[in-house]
From TrEMBL:
It is found in: Cell membrane. The lineage of its organism: Bacteria, Bacillati, Actinomycetota, Actinomycetes, Micrococcales. It comes from the Bacteria. Its main location: membrane. This is ABC transporter ATP-binding protein. InterPro entries: AAA+_ATPase, ABC_Ni/Peptide_Import, ABC_transporter-like_ATP-bd, ABC_transporter-like_CS, Oligopep_ABC_C, P-loop_NTPase. GO terms for biological process: peptide transport. Gene3D superfamilies: P-loop containing nucleotide triphosphate hydrolases. Residues 20-269 form the ABC transporter domain. PANTHER family: DIPEPTIDE TRANSPORT ATP-BINDING PROTEIN DPPD, OLIGOPEPTIDE TRANSPORT ATP-BINDING PROTEIN APPD. The keyword Acetylation does not apply. Belongs to the ABC transporter superfamily. Coiled coil: none annotated. Keywords: ATP-binding, Cell membrane, Membrane, Nucleotide-binding, Transport.
Length: 285
């Protein structure tokens, strides 16, 4: 597979082009005695052309980290520290400026693909409108782009797919369409939050291979959020293990899986089934 990392150059300021650098990220909700600390100082480099995995138990803060990067945190979130995207500090950006990045330069896909697609609109309406909103392109150019993206994610019969509604697709096809929608504006960063958890096991591997392809061929920086260390060990380049709002370990996936340093990581790995998660060639066995 070719690696045309169009965004991999490093700018003189130090941030990798197209990637995200998170430093000292804190997140809390509420005040006084009701204050709940969710993220307690996260440092994480998410480089272009790599899949950075966020693993860890339920409630450890994986989703919140992804939502923070995307600027999609729930109301009342108190965010501190830094999230740099190329030359821009995202924390503290006004909503209007953040809207320029979200959905365009930084896109997100969710466990339930229908969460990012409107049930009452055709695929064409949503993909094309989204693209035109961000780029100002013509309807025709938007349609061409939509066909191209549906082809890229291997949705069969893209022309016919454009005329359909979300409920007319299977879960796996719909996740591909959600990915196509996320790719419309050529994002540099894609946050994939449990993208295969809701899918039939027979279609999971196809979606994971697609994410790997997008990362390798388009140079997209991917944050893969999953509680599934098996999926992580097959797909991610590096694995960050989260626990109670902190990253307790982050390193090359082989090192994290084969020589975990933190007792919590060891416990997670010991809990894995014997087979299917620790293949060394990047495929699930
Ligand atoms: N709106 C909110 N107000 C207060 N706390 C919240 C809010 N949303 C989420 N939380 C809390 O933030 C913490 C981290 O949640 P998060 O969804 O990031 O965990 P996670 O690691 O992704 O877990 P899972 O694998 O279950 O999705 C949890 O304790 C959750 O209860």
């Amino acid at each position: 597979m070719g690696t045309t990392n169009r965004l991999e150059a490093t700018d003189p300021g130090g941030a990798p082009r197209g990637g995200v650098v998170i430093s000292g990220l804190t997140l809390s909700f509420g005040r006084g005695e009701a204050r709940k600390e969710i993220l307690r100082g996260i440092d994480l480099d998410v480089p272009a052309g790599k899949i950075t995995g966020l693993a860890g138990e339920s409630g450890s803060g994986k989703t919140m980290t992804g939502l923070a990067v995307c600027g999609l945190l729930p109301a009342g979130a108190d965010l501190g520290g830094s999230i740099r995207f190329e030359d821009t500090e995202l924390i503290g950006l006004k909503q209007r400026s953040m809207n320029r990045f979200r959905g365009a330069k930084i896109a997100m896909i969710f466990q339930d693909p229908s969460a990012s697609l409107h049930p009452m609109l055709t695929i064409e309406a949503q993909l094309v409108d989204h693209y035109r909103h961000h780029t100002g392109a013509s309807k025709r150019a938007g349609r061409e782009r939509a066909l191209e993206m549906l082809g890229l994610v291997a949705v069969p019969h893209p022309e016919a797919a454009l005329r359909k509604y979300p409920h007319q697709f299977s879960g796996g096809q719909l996740q591909r369409i959600a990915i196509a929608s996320a790719l419309m504006c050529e994002p540099s960063v894609l946050i994939a939050d449990e993208p295969t958890t809701a899918l039939d096991v027979t279609v999971q591997a196809g979606i994971l291979r697609l994410l790997r392809k997008l990362c390798d061929e388009l140079g997209i920086a991917i944050i893969l959020v999953t509680h599934d260390l098996g999926v992580m060990s097959a797909l991610a380049d590096t694995i960050a293990v989260m626990r109670m709002g902190e990253i307790v370990e982050h390193g090359d996936r082989y090192e994290v899986i084969t020589a975990p340093r933190h007792p919590y990581t060891k416990a997670l790995i010991d809990a894995l089934p014997e087979s299917g998660a620790r293949s060394s060639d990047g495929t699930e066995s």
